[in-house]
Amino acid sequence: MAPLILNSLEKRFGSGAPAVRDLSLTVQEGRFLALLGPSGCGKTTVLRMIAGFEQPSDGSILLGERLLADAATMLPPERRNMAMVFQSYALWPHMTVAENVGYPLKVRKVAKEKARQKVREALSAVRLDAYADRRPAALSGGQRQRVALARCLVTEPDVVLLDEPLANLDRHLRQEMEETFREFHARSGATMIYVTHDQSEAMALATDVAVMSEGRLLQMAPPEEIYARPEGLVIGGLVGQGSILSLALPRTSSRSLDWPSLRVALDGSVAEGTEPAHVLVRPQDVLLDDAGLTGRVTSSFFEGERYALRIQLADGQSLRAFSRQPVRQGDAVGVVLQAGWRL
Ligand SMILES: Nc1ncnc2c1ncn2[C@@H]1O[C@H](COP(=O)(O)OP(=O)(O)OP(=O)(O)O)[C@@H](O)[C@H]1O
Question: What are the ABC transporter domain coordinates in residue numbering (predicted)?
Answer without folding.
Answer: 4-239
